[in-house]
Amino acid sequence: MPVKDWLPAAARAKAVDRKLKAGEPLFHLGDKTSGLYEVVSGRVRMTRVDRTGHETVLYESGAGETFAEASLFSPAYHCDAIASTDAVVRVYPKSAVLDAFAKDPKAVQAFTATLAHQVMGLRTRLEQRNIRSARERLRHYLALNVGADGRTVTLRGTVKDLAAELGLTHEALYRTLAALERAGAIRRSKGKIVLRRGQGRSI
Amino acid sequence: MPVKDWLPAAARAKAVDRKLKAGEPLFHLGDKTSGLYEVVSGRVRMTRVDRTGHETVLYESGAGETFAEASLFSPAYHCDAIASTDAVVRVYPKSAVLDAFAKDPKAVQAFTATLAHQVMGLRTRLEQRNIRSARERLRHYLALNVGADGRTVTLRGTVKDLAAELGLTHEALYRTLAALERAGAIRRSKGKIVLRRGQGRSI
DNA sequence: CGAGTGATTGACTTAGATCAATGACCGTGG
DNA sequence: CCACGGTCATTGATCTAAGTCAATCACTCG
After folding, report:
1. A:172-191 residues touching chain B, CB 8 A cutoff
2. Is residue A200 over pLDDT 60?
3. Are strands A87-93 and A16-20 parallel, antiparallel or unpaired?
4. What one-character-per-residue DSSP string does B97-153 give?
5. Cβ A59–B151 below 8 Å, yes or no?
6. Is the dihedral of CA A116, A121, A122, A123 positive or negative?
7. Within its chain, how far is the Cα of B106 from the centroid?
8. Is the pLDDT of residue B203 over 70?
9. How far apart are CA A58 and CA A137, in angstroms?
10. What is the reported pLDDT for A198?
11. How far apart are CA A170 and CA B90, in angstroms?
């Protein structure tokens, strides 16, 4: 996902940062596409407004995420983007990106590979959401995120962040963690969860 | 998503169909990648097995879907694939696809655009799953799937299929539909849902 | 004509959302 | 240097929407 991984430095040099206040629009449906975006800080929400005037959220990107990748291949944006908090976004002009692709086949390939991985990851997260039980959902996550030792999961953020990623309330997650720890299935320490013997079936 | 849309006929001609019995493996983690797959019929499940021997489902693809796109850029599969029902899959050999990409820049671009759209769609579905209420979840879906007239949603399958897509039990969905119809927010007819005046706020 | 599946609705149960409160930390501005 | 406001971590009590179990009816397909 990090732009660094696939976009040549020459193209990255053309990026422009833009500061947005909460509620400030970045682009609207139908606007000519200017490029793809990366959220540097804050959050940006992509929405679509239906005929009755109601707004429906397509998704909300947080720091580090990119969005509007599809706009590279489309002349106009297909939705609105609005900062939901004060935010800084980085625009990679379409021309710079497409030029890089034309000149450097490696770049397209890397970008495409990145997207393919994203698709994979998103499908996995969607599958996770099909699991109703908080405990099993958490186990699914843990099973797929153990480190090289096969038993340590390093949290990428706060427990609240994890709750959001899992689609649970933070309270539910705290309780589930507490229950698993009480049952001896996991052990917790600062920013880490260590799996232990016999955590039983997955799925 | 349909392969037809981005892969030139020449490459498509190299595809090979393979029949699988329920439970039959298609490939295993670490196998050399042979190409990307399309599910012709049945379902195929991608799983990963953790050190404790438990299997975790990454995702399950149904008829019409493609999977293992990322394998085009990787020498070995990163998970197992097993038919969860009797199934027919179509393999597009890696070499055929990559050749097509090399010879026809349009093809890479089309593929990349397809992936970008998939990412968009998946993010939207994930956002949808963040909505807890069955009613609002349904509304979110309806709002994003109205036809050109702005009020008709054509179901792509049975109501049960829709329930699965929404991540609800079919019973819950039936009840929600019934409630919305009773409230006059929608009207149903064979394979269609028509929105009516004043369905209130989204999100 | 059964068997299998979708559509639908009822009754009941429960897991997780909600509301609330507390303590630990952290940065910061006076 | 410390008090204060804000956020995270955690746990309790309560409530309800959605899951689960179950039954019925309408179809469709050999």
Report:
1. none
2. no
3. antiparallel
4. HHHHHHH-HHHHHHHHHHHHHHHHHHHHHHHHHT---HHHHHHHHHHHH--TTSSEE
5. no
6. positive
7. 24
8. no
9. 23
10. 57
11. 43
How do A25-27 and A80-83 pair as beta strands?
A: antiparallel
For chain B positions 25-64, those within 8 Å of chain A (CB to CB) are: 48, 50-52, 54-60
Q: Which distant-in-sequence residues (6+ apart) come within 8 Å of A203 by Cβ?
A: A131, A136, A140, B55, B56, B57
Q: Which of B115, B150, B203 is the closest to A115 by Cβ? A: B115
Computed on alpha carbons and rounded to an integer, the radius of gyration of chain B in Å comes to 20
Q: Report the C-alpha gap between B23 and B63 in whole angstroms.
A: 16
Question: Tokens representing A111?
Answer: 């970008």
3-state secondary structure of B80: strand
Residue A70 φ/ψ, nearest 5 degrees: -65, -20
pLDDT for A52: 67
Beta strands in chain B (DSSP E): 16-20, 25-27, 35-41, 44-49, 55-61, 66-67, 80-83, 87-93, 152-154, 186-189, 192-195
The pLDDT score that the predictor gives to residue B190 is: 86
Q: DSSP H helical segments within chain A, as ranges? A: 9-12, 94-103, 105-129, 134-145, 159-166, 170-182
pLDDT category of residue A202 using cuts at 50, 70 and 90: very low
pLDDT one-digit tens code per residue, A138-179: 999 999 999 988 889 999 889 999 999 999 999 999 999 999
Distance CA B152, CA B131 (A): 22
Which of A111, A113, A125 minimises the CB distance to B70?
A113
Q: Are strands A80-83 and A66-67 parallel, antiparallel or unpaired?
A: unpaired
Cα gap B68→A79, rounded to integer Å: 29
